[in-house]
Each structure stands twice: as C-alpha cells, then as structure tokens.
Amino acid sequence: MKKNLSIALGIFLVIIILTVCLLSFIYMPHEPNEMNISQKFLKPGVNSEYILGTDNFGRDILSRIMYGSRNVLLVGIGSVSLGTFIGIILGAIAAINNKLLSAVIMRIMDGLMAFPGILLALMLVTVVGRGIKGSVIAISIFMVPVFSRLVYSMILDTENLLYIKAARSYGSSNLTIFMRHYIPAMLPRLVTQFSSAIGSAVMIETSLSFLGLGIQPPFASWGLMLSESRQFFLNYPYLAVAPGIAIIMTVLGFILIGDGLNDMLIHRRSDDE
Amino acid sequence: MLKYVLNRVKSSLVILLVVSMITFFVLMIIPGNPAQLILGTDATAEAIEDLRIAMGLDRPYYQQYLGWLLDLLKFDLGTSYIYGEAVTSLIIRAIPVTFSIAVFAMLIATITALFFGILSAVKKDSIIDYFSRSIMQLGTAIPSFWIGMVFIVYFGLRLKWFPISGFVPISSSFAGFLKSIALPAIVLAIGETGTLLRIVRSSMLDSLKQDYMDAARIKGLNKWKIYMKYALRGALIAPVTIIGMQFAKLAGGTVVVETIFALPGIGRLVLTAVERRDIVLLQGLVMFITTTVIFITLMVDLLIMTINPRIKSVERGE
C-alpha cells in the first residue's frame, strides 16, 4: 500500500468515527436505550425511521452505534493518554536517575510486559471492577510499559548527543533538558506509538465488553452489542454487521495512521516495511 | 556463550519473580474477603474469621507472599473455590485444548505469512504485494470474536462442516479433533498472520539486497532456488523470534476464542476465575501463563543463538 494512501485512509476513517461521536451529542435518531418491542428485529433499510434496523428489544441500532462510539473513544483515547503520561514519567525517571531506582522501575515494566494479550487487563478488571472506570484503568496500566520502555531507550540513545551535552554544560536542570530537548526529539515516535496504541486499546475495550467485563447493559458499547447479538445471529445476521464494521473502521483507522506516521517520520527511507 | 545463556536464564528468573509479586499484590488488594466468598452470605462472622485464620489470611502480607511463593515452587497452586479442586489439576486438564489450537493457529499463520511474505518481497510493488499486505492489514483490525461468530454461523450452522463448540481429544478421534479445533485455530491465525507477514517481507527484502545474492545470481542459479535456499535462510531470524512470541502469547490462553467456541481451555478458566472472582484460581492461572510465556521466549532466544551465534542480545534491542 502506498504510504500516503494508507495515512490518508487512516485519517479518513478516524474522522468518520470522530464525527459520529461528536454528532451523538447533538443528534441521535432515537434514545439509544429506548425499547420498542413492536418494532423489534427490523432489518436495515426496511423502515426509514430505523436506517440500520432494530435489535431484539426494538432499540435503534444506529443510535446505539452512535452512543457506543463515545464509550469506545473515551476508553481508547483516555486510557492511552493516561498510560502514555505515566509511561513517559516512569521511563524518564528510570533513564535519568541512579541505577537502583532505574533497575526497579524497568524490572517492573519487564514484569508487566510478560503478561500476554488481555490477561493483565482481565486481572486488573477483577480488582478495579467492571465498567468504564475499570476498563480505563486496566488498559492504561497495560500501556504504561510500552511507553516507558520507549522513552527509556530513546533517552539513553540520545544522552550522548552534542546538544544535550551542551545543555548540560550550561547547567540546565534535568527537567529543563527533558522538556526542551528530549520531548521534541521523542515526539515522532511517541505520536506514532500513541496512534497505534489507541487501535489496540479499542480492540481490548471491545473484547472486554464482549466478554461482559466492560461497559454494563443496558448501555451501548460495540463489543456488548456483538455479544448481545450472538443468540439471534443465525436468524438476524445484520445485528452483528454494524458494530463489527464500526470496530474494524476504528481499529484500522488508528493503526493506519500509526503505520503511516511511522514511515513518514521515522523510517523515511523505506518503502520496504 | 555459556555466559550469555546464564545471563538470559538469570534475567528470566528475575522477571518471573517480579511477575509473581505483581500478581500476588494486585490480587491482594481486591475488595471482598475470600473467606466470605467461599462461605457465602449466610455464614456467621465467627465461621468466616475461623476460615480466614485457617487460610492464613490474618498473617502479614509479606509472610503470605513468601508462603505462596514457596508453594508455587512445589507446584502447589492451591485449591479453587468454585471448582473445589486443585488448581494444578484444572490447568493440566485445560492445557491440551489451548496448546492444540495455539499450535495449529501458528502453523496456519506461519505458512500463510511465509508464502505471501516471500511472494510480496520478491514481487515488490506488484499487485500481489499490495493486495496481500492490504488483506493482512485488515486481518489485524478485525476482532476475533466477530470473525468467530461469522464462522460459527456459516461453516458451523449453515454448511455444517465443523462443530460449533466443544473439544474432541486427539485420543478419541483424530478427525474429530481436527474438526473441533479448525475454526478456532483459523480465527486466531487471522489475527496473527498480518504482523508475521510484515516481518517476513521486510527481512526477506533485506536479505535480497545482500552481496551474496548478487553472487548467486551471477553464478546463474535458478531464481526461485536462490530465493528459497539463500535469501530465505538469511531472512528467518526475525520471523522466528516473532513466531515464538506469538506462540507464547497464544499458548497463554486465548480467552475470547475459547469463549466463543465453548472450548474448555486455559482461557475459559481465566474468564471463569475473573467472573466469579476466584482469586486462588486466577493467581495460579496467571503464574502458569506468564511462566509459559517467559519460558518459551527464553527457549526461542537460545534457539536463535544456536542458529546465529553472532547475534548478541544487544542487537535485538534488549
């Protein structure tokens, strides 16, 4: 795929999702939790009032998708922002400080990295509890080691660059050097990683809510909508189409932006990866 | 060489120790009293207190941790509240299920990624290249539970090619076994192939640029023979590392897929433990899974060292 094309497609997808989310605060065709049993299992396109059809309780699928985008984006962007923030601080502390503190922090990060897939998120949800708060905390802790390792290794890599040494010789404090010199130097990688991380966070959030451990019913979330559609899926397959496509668009959008940025900002040379 | 091996083993053990601390202390701060959970809501306060003392929950945290760690070393993971059975035996029963789908998923992913990865690299910038990479990119963005649902309905219920739930042990029927793990393995493979394909493609491209490739071409060797014999060998290190990591991740339990296909594997146990708040079971499972992951990663590292002794851990970014 051509690089510019992939980033353009990514931005296009993310803009659609963001627009849907913002629009949900201004206008939704129906109240997302409003049940209307007489209108249940309407297929998409049959009734102009319910463009994407209705579910087993006669709830409007379009409105639920719109409402669900808020939760997905809140958890996705919120948890990655929190994880990035804590990760940068821990990584910087580990890179700048003495050996003991650095070793302690980085071993904890190694330990967190050893939890595969959503295991860490599942364990944390058990402790924090189900729902939006639980998902945000669980996913942000999942993201911390990714960013702290990145920052740690980038600081160690750039430590010996002349301009950093020069700044040090002027007597700039660690904090000043960090804010003035390291952060701008690290920005391309951080932004790239940030975008891809949102893609994974959305995937984890939808998995958690699919498993019934994320946002609780009757509130709408894409993963939960898919999980609820399971028992009717054989006769009403359209129930799973809209939430599935919404998830794929969101995850793909953020991953494509991450990939595109990676190629543009970091590996300028390569059309190879 | 020996020093490198010892160092890797030592750092794996340190990580394992850190993981055990994280697991123990995270699950310690869980709200609710385990004794209360076991006895239920109608138990008297005295009975709960007695059980708490019997379980050693009145001791200071560090003593509880050391006791738990000592038991771990003896492979004693405690008894699950909800199953009333030793956690170790629950895990042993679930291993074949998870292990089988993980092995088959990685087989499918590896074969697909090698095939399309090599083709993409050799035919760089062709239609095949763009097409295979776009499809694989899409594959990583599709949630496994969605694909799983679609597969169950079309291949399981409509076409009736595969059973839609449950696991058939290999000992009772080989064909039945293959059928019962085919769909879950394919679903998992779809998620893993994309990453692997990119690595195969980029390391194959690297390897095609090497001087010895020119030498082979000048000698007039057959094109595909060059690709398969020389280029691929040079290009395999990075993919092997990734395959190892992906396998480790899958072997650690595939919660979502096991849930959709109702397979009695490690992932299902994890979900049950989380849902019912069975802390002992969850602690045991987490330790088992992370140990497996760390062990497989270590084995892959050592394997790569034997394939290519020049590789120092530094070069792999550790």
From TrEMBL, chain A:
Superkingdom of origin organism: Bacteria
Pfam family, one: BPD_transp_1
SUPFAM superfamilies assigned to the protein according to its UniProt record, in alphabetical order: MetI-like
GO CC, any one term: plasma membrane
GO annotation terms (biological process): transmembrane transport
InterPro entries: BP-dependent_transpt_permease, MetI-like, MetI-like_sf
Primary localization: membrane
Membrane topology annotation: Multi-pass membrane protein
Keyword annotations from UniProtKB, A to Z: Cell membrane, Membrane, Transmembrane, Transmembrane helix, Transport
CDD domains tied to this protein: TM_PBP2 (cd06261)
Compartment annotation: Cell membrane
Protein family per UniProt: Belongs to the binding-protein-dependent transport system permease family.
PANTHER family xref list: D,D-DIPEPTIDE TRANSPORT SYSTEM PERMEASE PROTEIN DDPC-RELATED, OLIGOPEPTIDE TRANSPORT SYSTEM PERMEASE PROTEIN APPC
Name of the protein this chain belongs to: ABC transporter permease
Source organism phylogeny: Bacteria, Bacillati, Bacillota, Tissierellia, Sedimentibacter
TrEMBL record, chain B:
GO annotation terms (biological process): transmembrane transport
UniProt entry keywords in alphabetical sequence: Cell membrane, Membrane, Transmembrane, Transmembrane helix, Transport
Domain spans labelled ABC transmembrane type-1: 95-304
Entries under InterPro entries matching the protein: BPD_transp_1_N (IPR045621), MetI-like (IPR000515), MetI-like_sf (IPR035906)
GO cellular component: plasma membrane
Chain ranges passing through the membrane: 12-30, 99-122, 134-157, 177-200, 230-248, 279-304
Cellular localization per UniProt: Cell membrane
Topology within the bilayer: Multi-pass membrane protein
Taxonomy, superkingdom: Bacteria
The family this protein is said to belong to: Belongs to the binding-protein-dependent transport system permease family.
Protein name: ABC transporter permease
